[in-house]
Amino acid sequence: MQSICQARASVMVYDDSTKKWVPVKPGQQGFSRINIYHNTASNTFRVVGVKLQDQQVVINYSIVKGLKYNQATPTFHQWRDARQVYGLNFASKEEATTFSNAMLFALNVLNSQEAGGQLLKYYFLHRKCLSKGQTSHKD
Questions:
Q1: Per the structure, how many domains does the chain have?
Q2: Is residue 40 included in any domain, yes or no?
Q3: Higher pLDDT, 28 or 12
Q4: Please, are residues 24 and 31 in contact by the beta-carbon 8 Å criterion?
Q5: Domain containing 112 — which CATH number?
Q6: Rounded distance, CA 62 to CA 128, Å?
Q7: Where is each WH1 domain found (predicted)?
Q8: What is the DSSP letter of 94?
Q9: How do residues 65-80 score in pLDDT, each as one tens digit?
């Protein structure tokens, strides 16, 4: 795995009961070093955050195809899965931009894998039809 970006941010989760953003691990406030790692063998991506203070892992999240990433403010970005809404409160706009560029790159790669596969399938199906003497392809 190789890191495609690194930024400093506080990792938060949204607490539905209090309607507030809280630290991902209770009582653990402060900045973490957040990396997006790319596994080139499987072409997958992960967000991994380690507390600067004590090196505890506070987030280890697999980025999935179709994830909706929201840049709520220049320094606060968020996304959700079925269980949780995650937020990153960045140390600076520059670090937020660095992270969001890497996240959007990862999502683009993941989302285009499926599109690429569909295009490839269509190409071979279309080619197969043409090789049988058909002049058009209907889905």
A1: 1
A2: yes
A3: 12
A4: no
A5: 2.30.29.30
A6: 37
A7: 1-110
A8: H
A9: 999 999 999 999 999 9
CA 75 to chain CA mean position, Å: 17
Domain assignment present for 17: yes
CA distance 107 to 111: 6
Length of the chain: 139
Q: Of the ranges 68-72, 104-108, 111-115, which one carries the lowest mean pLDDT score? A: 111-115
Give a yes or no: residue 137 inside a domain. no
Asked if residues 12 and 89 have their Cβ atoms less than 8 Å apart, the reply is: yes
| Interacting residues of 92 by C-beta distance below 8 A, sequence separation 6+ | 8, 75
Q: Where are the beta strands (DSSP E) in 1-133?
A: 2-15, 20-23, 32-39, 44-51, 57-63, 69-71, 76-80, 85-90
Domain extent at residue 110? 2-131
d(CA 34, CA 60): 10
Tokens of 99: 């992270």
The two tokens of residue 80 are 């959700």
Tokens linked to 25: 């691990």
- Residue 118 forms part of a structural domain: yes
Return the DSSP state at 105: H
56 in Cβ contact with 28 (< 8 Å): yes
